[in-house]
TrEMBL record:
Quaternary structure, from the entry: Interacts with the Sec translocase complex via SecD. Specifically interacts with transmembrane segments of nascent integral membrane proteins during membrane integration.
Annotated membrane topology: Multi-pass membrane protein
Location of region: Disordered: 54-80
InterPro entries the UniProt entry points to: Membr_insert_YidC, Membr_insert_YidC_N, YidC/ALB3/OXA1/COX18, YidC/Oxa/ALB_C, YidC_ALB_C, YidC_periplasmic_sf
Subcellular location: Cell inner membrane; Cell membrane
Organism: Cognatiluteimonas sedimenti
Record's protein name: Membrane protein insertase YidC
Gene3D superfamilies: 2.70.98.90
Sequence ranges assigned to domain Membrane insertase YidC/Oxa/ALB C-terminal in this UniProt record: 382-561
């Protein structure tokens, strides 16, 4: 099998694999878990008290009051007043919160587009079309408790918090005071350069009766509208809810399949819940020893608009009179930054960077990203890092590729004899193939020698595809000149055109012992077909393949020069 056929094999395998992976994302069974048994009572450190079972039915499912239609006049007097909105600005985040929910979050280091003056990426929003909030409240079977909708009020009169120059953290406190002497102080702590917000609840019981309750934390959003088509890479990224537990590891469910996967009622210790999208995500991360229950729901918003919710209920606390208890969690709101996610030291959180649904492909993609990150530290540019990655891969695979090109050169050397066999056997293709195989065997030529290097490279190529698709580090990253975004297609199709030229030159250097004129014509048009396909791929991926093809062309030219001198024709 010659080099041209090798390219064709790769093209079909790559396209088939990408289509299969896309089909698997659409048609694969949605993640689901068997309903958990009723949660047992949870012992706490506050005496010998236990907490009765509280189900998710006690947790408010409706969106915040600002999303609903204005209440009737008699309802308005009974409705709990909304807490004032507090603004917090750090070096990486600008958020608005009201004690029970983070209602808006802007990622200051990530503009929405590459246009000058583009506003920052907004992850959380309160408007009906883009509604997305992180909410947290309490439920209790023994007394009053604050929900995410009302109850918490600011401790301080200020409404604006800014991380001061030289300061590492800024804390924003809220307080709920119950009618029976129980109070809950909630503190949001924002850290410089960090997208993980610490949320700590301290329960104090100054009353005469024990108080028992569960904290709940949830993410609620309107599923986003995702552009489709080859020119929109986000259409291939996962959009939906995800969760991680020690027993079942990483699981997820697309927004489109939210109601098709069955109920989720999973009892876990530790773990996390998240809403994932292209390049960004939000996640609640409870303590690693906290017992809670994960669940999904599809509440209806204003006007019957369908929403998606993922919730963790728990841990529970039992607080005796005069005692106190506390629980805390982290809320990640930001980009899928691999190093910062790893710095959280949360088991399985790295899977939020959804390189692939297949563990082996995710592992290869993670390895490739580590190499790319190292090379980026050396070159300071992701485009040159991709080129450096190609050089490393070509160096590691040199023995295989050398054998491949040497075999192709020997085939070129014996091309005159193959032409003789064509003339001898004419239209008898079977005899021609048998004679050609006999010649290969006699001269020790391996016609399939070009397949193995490509088959080895294909997982690397596909893993790099998902790496470029998912890595927010490469989002809007420029290379040189006209390439302003390596994760978007080449705007002027220059790299795909170069790829066509490289494949055409490779084809000219490669012998083509194909008797069928139709197959020969297909081979001639194959570089153009590949170029059209690559025109819709991310520019970084095309840069990888152009560099790989150019180095392969150079290596093949040298091998042909050394081993490809024509052999004398024999009768």
């Amino acid at each position: 099998m010659n080099q041209t056929r090798t390219f064709l094999i790769f093209a079909w395998l790559a396209v088939a694999t990408l289509l299969f992976m896309a089909w698997s994302r659409e048609q694969g069974p949605a993640s689901s878990a068997a309903p958990a048994a009723a949660a047992p009572a949870i012992a706490t450190g506050a005496g010998d008290s236990t907490i009765p079972v509280v189900t998710g039915a006690n947790v408010p499912k409706t969106p915040s009051a600002q999303m609903s239609a204005p209440p009737a006049e008699d309802e308005a007097t009974a409705a709990a007043p909304q807490a004032p909105v507090i603004s917090v600005t750090t070096d990486v985040l600008r958020v608005q919160l009201d004690g029970g929910a983070i209602r808006q979050a802007d990622l200051l280091r990530y503009p929405q587009t590459t246009a000058p003056g583009s506003p920052p990426m907004r992850l959380f929003a309160s408007d009906a079309a883009h509604f997305f909030q992180a909410q947290s409240g309490w439920v209790s079977s023994t007394g009053a408790a604050p929900s995410h909708e009302a109850g918490f009020v600011p401790v301080e009169p200020r409404r604006d918090y800014t991380l001061a120059a030289g300061a590492d953290q800024v804390a924003v406190p809220f307080l709920w005071t119950g009618p029976d002497g129980v109070s809950i102080r909630r503190t949001y702590v924002f850290t410089r350069g960090d997208y993980a917000v610490q949320v700590r609840d301290e329960v104090a019981n100054a009353g005469a009766s024990p108080w028992q309750g569960y904290v709940y934390r949830q993410l609620l959003r309107v599923p986003p509208a995702v552009k489709s088509g080859f020119t929109h890479p986000e259409s291939y990224s996962f959009h939906g809810a995800a969760w991680f537990s020690a027993q079942d590891k990483f699981e997820k469910r697309k927004f489109a399949k939210y109601d098709d996967g069955g109920a989720l009622d999973k009892r876990v210790t530790g773990g996390w819940i998240a809403m994932l999208q292209h390049h960004f995500f939000a996640a609640w991360i409870p303590g690693d020893k906290d017992a809670s229950t994960f669940s999904l729901a599809s509440p209806s918003g204003p006007g019957g608009q369908q929403q998606a919710l993922v919730r963790e209920l728990g841990p529970g606390v039992a607080v005796a009179p005069g005692a106190s208890a506390s629980t805390s969690a982290r809320l990640w709101v930001g980009p899928k930054l691999v190093k910062q996610i790893e710095a959280q030291h949360v088991v399985g959180l790295e899977r939020a960077v959804d390189f692939s649904s297949y563990a082996i492909m995710a592992w290869i993609a993670g390895l490739l990203f580590s190499v790319l990150a190292f090379l980026h530290g050396v070159f300071g540019n992701w485009g040159w890092a991709i080129i450096g990655l190609v050089v490393i891969i070509k160096a590691l695979m040199y023995p295989l590729s050398a054998a491949q090109y040497k075999s192709a050169a020997k085939m070129r050397r014996f091309q005159p004899r193959i032409e003789q066999l064509k003339e001898r056997y004419g239209d008898d293709k079977q005899k021609f193939q048998m004679a050609m195989m006999e010649l290969y065997k006699k001269e020790k030529i391996n016609p399939a020698g070009g397949c193995l290097p490509v088959l080895v490279q294909m997982p690397v190529f596909l893993a790099l595809y998902w790496t470029l698709l998912e890595s927010v580090e490469l989002r809007q990253a420029p290379w040189i000149g006209w390439i302003h975004n390596l994760t978007a297609p080449d705007p002027y199709f220059i790299l795909p055109a170069i790829n066509i030229a490289v494949m055409w030159a490779t084809q000219k250097l490669t012998p083509t012992p194909i008797a069928d004129p139709m197959q020969r014509r297909m081979m001639q048009y194959m570089p153009v077909a590949m170029g059209v396909m690559f025109a819709f791929f991310p520019a970084g991926l095309v840069l990888y393949w152009v560099t790989n093809g150019s180095l392969g062309l150079l290596q093949q030219w040298w091998m042909t020069k050394v081993h490809g001198q024509p052999a004398p024709a024999k009768a």
